[in-house]
Write a structure and sequence with these properties.
This protein is of the alpha/beta class. It is 44% helix and 16% strand. The protein has 12 helices and 9 strands. Strands 2-1-3-4-7 form a 5-stranded parallel sheet. A two-stranded antiparallel sheet has the order 5-6.
Length: 343
């Protein structure tokens, strides 16, 4: 930062603060810090939380020389970045992601947002952080489900731009923190930053980063609004990375059906992901397909009722901006759900 910082707001998930109460003590030592805790869970990434944070910033006279530090997972990066980018038309912020998902996705690239009516990030900004601090020690605190959450995004990066990474990832039988290599994280970050530098405002090329997300976000949004009755998680919802993993299968299927991706490659992708994410799929009912497809129609990239997705041409080669119908999405989701119990 060019100017001396006069005060800091730390926006953090309460669970993270309990695990790492002293982590920020040495960062900007001597500068007054105000710790603002937010509710965990994607369902709480909404306008009410943003208003709560804006009001506290205003009450404590935060200004252009103040700094926000977002300390937590992807939800904190999205929400905190949105608050920073809109308060006084933008004040500086830093992201310190504490999850694998946050490290390789939400904390980088400058996309900030909140959900509206359970639709993911439909209100947001593009505003870059001053800095992103990645510390893999945080991975040791994550549950297997949380690691899989980030691993879903890591699979995406491998498929759209790094076939060598895919060849390493597909050997994984189980996901443990000790098995996540720092170079994997670094390669995902480097790839995203390269794309963002070429297309910060998401006009075309950056759309490839949304591979698996059009249908994945629909899964996530539907079950955020309509909680599962199964045993997926204590929150009874599908988390982002798990939803994206299933979205990758569905959108790989569409790539195959539209004659871009060989069937054998689609099956390789599908079989690997389902070995890891079978329990997520088991919680999705075939009776909900139409409701999920309706949410695909609300994706931010759509135009004139046509659904925009990124497709694959090969492992490591993505092709953005393909227009598909709601019938195409229904077929892809039906095919996916039909695989439940087969792995």
């Amino acid at each position: 930062m060019k100017n001396k910082i006069n005060k800091i707001a730390v926006i953090a998930d309460q669970n993270v603060l309990q695990l790492f109460p002293y982590y920020l003590d040495e960062l900007y030592a001597g500068v007054p810090k105000f710790v603002l805790t937010v509710l965990p869970g994607e369902q709480n990434k909404n306008i009410d939380e943003a208003v709560y944070l804006w009001q506290i910033l205003q009450e404590h006279h935060f200004d252009k020389r103040s700094l926000i530090i977002n300390f937590g997972g992807g939800k904190v990066s999205d929400l905190g970045g949105f608050v920073a980018s809109t308060y006084q038309r933008g004040i500086p912020f830093i992201n310190i992601p504490t999850t694998l998902l946050g490290m390789i996705d939400a904390a980088i690239g400058g996309k900030n947002g909140i959900n509206l009516n359970s639709v993911k990030n439909v209100v947001g900004t593009i505003y870059l952080p001053e800095k992103v601090i990645v510390d893999i020690q945080f991975l040791r605190t994550l549950s297997p489900a949380q690691l899989l959450d980030g691993f879903g995004e890591m699979i995406k990066y491998a498929l759209i731009g790094n076939s060598a990474l895919w060849n390493e990832l597909k050997k994984m039988e189980n996901i443990y923190a000790k098995d996540i290599k720092k170079e994997w994280i670094d390669s995902c970050i480097a790839f995203k930053n390269k794309i963002v530098q070429k297309d910060l405002y998401d006009q075309e090329l950056r759309h490839i980063l949304n591979f698996g997300h059009t249908i994945g976000h629909a899964f996530e949004a539907y079950y955020m609004k309509t909680p599962l009755s199964g045993e997926f998680s204590s929150a009874q919802t599908i988390s982002h990375g798990h939803a994206v993993a299933l979205g990758i299968i569905a959108e790989s299927y569409l790539s195959f059906r539209h004659n871009l991706l060989p069937q054998s490659t689609y099956e390789e992708i599908r079989n690997f992901i389902l070995k890891l994410y079978q329990n997520t799929l088991k919680n999705i009912s075939i009776s909900e397909i139409n409701n999920i497809v309706q949410l695909c129609l609300l994706d931010k990239k759509n135009l004139d009722g046509k659904i925009n997705i990124t497709m694959l041409e090969a492992i490591g080669k993505a092709s953005p901006n393909h227009w598909v119908s709601k019938e195409d999405c229904e077929e892809a989701i039906r095919s996916l759900i039909g695989m439940a119990g087969k792995f």
